[in-house]
Amino acid sequence: GDPDLVVANNNGPARILINQGAPAPGQWVGIDLRTPGSEDAKSAHRPLGSWVGVLEDGTAKPARQRRFHTDGSYASANDPRVLVVTGSATPTLAVSWPDGEQEFFRLEETGRYFTLVRGRGEP
Questions:
Q1: What number of CA atoms fall less than 13 Å from residue 59's CA on the CB side?
Q2: Any alpha helices (H) in the chain, and if so which ranges?
Q3: How far apart are CA 27 and CA 93, in angstroms?
Q4: E strands of 35-121, at which residues?
Q5: d(Cα 25, Cα 37) in Å, to the nearest integer?
Q6: How large is the greatest C-alpha to C-alpha distance in the chain, in angstroms?
Q7: pLDDT reported for residue 102
Q8: Chain-wide mean pLDDT for the chain?
Q9: Distance between CA atoms of 48 and 41, rounded to whole angstroms?
Q10: How many CB atoms lie within 10 A of CB 38?
Q11: What integer is the mean pLDDT of 18-25?
């Protein structure tokens, strides 16, 4: 839950920035999105361009959203998994898939990564 950063400099040494802050226990979830039938495959299809948000206090629209992507800037790549902060011990996540369809996933715990598969949430 505390991501680090590697910076590759042109004609210079790589820099590793280690996040020394520890997230509060149970205040975050990590999300990996997959399409049906690909959740266990090593070359699984990931629905890049999806959005993940946390619904708080019974709201219908996420207050904070993160994009599921690997792009960043020129000659860079990112871990597509999304880290989101949550104030609930059992958060509900809203996932907007690239084609505009939306699903809701209620998680029973926090402080770890989950794989959410399209079609297994609530429409």
A1: 12
A2: none
A3: 14
A4: 51-55, 64-67, 82-85, 92-96, 102-106, 113-117
A5: 32
A6: 51
A7: 94
A8: 84
A9: 16
A10: 16
A11: 78
- 74 or 13: which leads in pLDDT: 13
> Token pair 């999304």 is at which residue?
82
At 74, list the tokens: 């020129």
Note the pTM of the prediction, 2 decimals: 0.79
Q: Give the pLDDT score at 15.
A: 93
Read off the tokens for 4: 């680090």
Burial code (b: 16+ CB inside 10 Å, e: under 16) for 13-29 equals: eeeeeeeeeeeeebebb
Exposed, middle or buried, 116 (CB in 10 Å: 0-12/13-18/19+)? buried
CA distances from 78 to 22, 68, 84, 98 (A): 21, 10, 16, 18
- pLDDT for residue 31: 93
Strand partners, 16: 6
